[in-house]
Amino acid sequence: MVKEPVPGRVKTRLGRDWGMVRAANWFRKQALSTIRRLDDPRWDLVLAVSPDREGLTSRFWPSHLTRMPQGRGDLGARMGRLLRASPAPKTCIIGADIPDIQPHHIMSSFSALGSQRGVLGPSEDGGYWLVGLRHPKLAPAGLFQNVRWSTQFARHDTQQSAKSIDWAQIETLSDVDTLDDLRLYQTRVRRTF
Questions:
Q1: Any bridge partners for residue 173, and if so which?
Q2: CB 147 within 8 A of CB 158
């Protein structure tokens, strides 16, 4: 899932403390780096874009990749719609703000879906950086309802919204939502931006 890297529309929590232009530029570079790393022949990489019309025609994203609109609604409504629209027997959704993600993480998620109906890639803040389903067209009707997004309860609430799913969990990774998140990442990899 990617948003157009427009200042004030993307990474707004990071932008409040770091500046909206810097935050949007960081997201654009991060998203493109993630796309390059994960563009792999072992799976189909599809960009779920937002806003719909702009994202479908955007010049920011690689033109060789299939794009689909995220549509309206909160994050749960958009993810549920994307999962149910997937023609693949196993589908995973990630954001583009996870600097440490590598192809082996995606392979781990697909492997987990060989024996489990759902998979989550937990993040340290109580949320998750990946959600995947085996047979996504059969996702439970209540999946992603009543989830407290952007809180430490997001992962728990997601699991509660679909109790019929046996959830596997793969490696914990961190996303970057705030300046503190970015600083922790910089310290960990000894980089500066």
A1: 123
A2: yes
pLDDT band at 170 (very low <50, low <70, confident <90, very high): very high
Evaluate if residue 148 carries a pLDDT over 80: yes
Domains of the chain, CATH where assigned? 2-189 (3.90.550.10)
pTM confidence score: 0.94
Mean pLDDT for 49-68 is 97
The two tokens of residue 65 are 């990749």
Q: Buried b vs exposed e over 18-40: b needs ≥16 C-beta within 10 Å? A: bebebbbebbbebbbebbeebee
Q: Give phi and psi for 144, each to the nearest 5.
A: 75, 10
5-33 pLDDT, tens per residue? Answer: 999 999 999 999 999 999 999 999 999 99
CB contact burial 47-75 (16+ within 10 A = b; e otherwise):
bbbbeeeebeebeebeeeeebbbbeeeee
Asked whether 2 and 50 are in contact (CB, 8 A), the reply is yes
**Amino acid identity at 67:** R
